[in-house]
Write a structure and sequence with these properties.
- By secondary structure, the chain is α/β, with parallel strands linked by helices.
- It has one domain (18-259): Zn peptidases (Aminopeptidase, 3-Layer(aba) Sandwich).
- The chain is 30% helix and 21% strand.
- The chain has seven helices and ten strands.
- It has helices spanning 18-31, 77-89, 106-111, 132-142, 176-184, 219-226, 242-259, and strands spanning 35-41, 46-52, 64-69, 96-101, 149-156, 163-167, 194-195, 198-201, 204-205, 231-237.
- Strands 1-2-4-3-5-10-6-9-8-7 form a ten-stranded mixed β-sheet, sandwiched between helices.
- The longest helix is centred in the last third of the chain and has 18 residues, at 242-259.
- The two termini are 34 Å apart.
- The relative contact order is 0.18.
């Protein structure tokens, strides 16, 4: 599988019409029986969380609660397309409650920029939120219960292949190797020993950094500090074809859902 080799200094690959994709997401979610909750709205766009209840009674008596977010960077189109693919496939665990936010940064997609229209990197805005989008998102998250698993869906224009971050402070059974194995069937894995300046092994980064030591928080830091004990950031390699990246993120998500206890 060949790289495009055109992402120099930033993302220069395929783009999407975010308004059209979000309309398609709404259609697919409603058709599958999901309930939407809009938690931020402005003249240009709205941010919506989609909620799917279990369709069977869990054997434990309590459903797994799984949170998935995408589209926080406007130059990562495979992320929101993955949300659309997952909704259309409708292959969710029957005993799980799913919360899906398909796009946290519509204004960034409108200009094909990582940041929002105001120039803020929303995935560095979770410690003391400055953007109206993340203030609203954090306020919404604070009203939610705990999650068994959180998946933050991303791309990386510099990556040599798929990789992921695992935040697992309680040393719960890891889902990382299973996700990487599933992705390897559809997309190259970045097997570099150092990725984004962090030690990696087999496409997996397990940072030991205490979130409290970081002045800027990504969404994953807020989630692991407040709502979950297990959080993964999935990174597709955006110098590969868009369809390949969607396949990779979809495969990783299905593997996580299948193995999350």
């Amino acid at each position: 599988m060949q790289r495009y080799n055109k992402n120099f200094g930033g993302y220069h690959g395929e783009t999407i019409d975010i308004a059209t994709v979000l309309r398609e997401i709404t259609t697919a979610a409603i058709a599958a029986g999901w309930r939407g909750e809009t938690f931020y709205e402005c003249p240009e766009f709205a941010l919506t969380a989609w909620h799917r209840l279990p369709t069977t009674t869990p054997t434990t008596g309590k459903p797994r609660r799984i949170y998935i977010s995408a589209g926080i960077h406007g130059d990562e189109p495979a992320t929101t397309l993955t949300a659309l693919r997952l909704l259309r496939e409708d292959l969710w665990p029957a005993d799980a409650e799913i919360i899906l936010i398909p796009c946290l940064n519509p204004s960034g997609f409108m200009i094909n920029h990582r940041e929002n229209a105001g120039g803020l990197d929303l995935n560095r805005d979770y410690l003391v939120p400055q953007s109206p989008e993340i203030r609203a998102h954090v306020a919404w998250l604070e009203r939610q219960g705990q999650f068994n698993l959180c998946l933050c869906v991303h791309e990386d224009w510099e990556a040599h292949g798929f990789y992921l971050y695992e935040l697992n402070p309680e040393q719960r059974p890891s889902l990382a190797e299973g996700m990487v194995a599933a992705v390897a069937r559809v997309c190259p894995i970045d097997n570099s020993s150092v990725i984004e300046g962090r030690e990696a092994q087999g496409g997996i980064i397990r940072p030991s950094l205490d979130p409290r030591s970081r002045p800027q928080w990504p969404e994953a830091f807020w989630l692991i500090s407040n709502k979950t004990a297990l959080c993964y950031t999935l990174e597709a390699p955006s110098d590969f074809p868009l369809a390949t990246r969607v396949d990779a993120l979809t495969a990783a998500t299905h593997a996580a859902l299948a193995n999350c206890g």
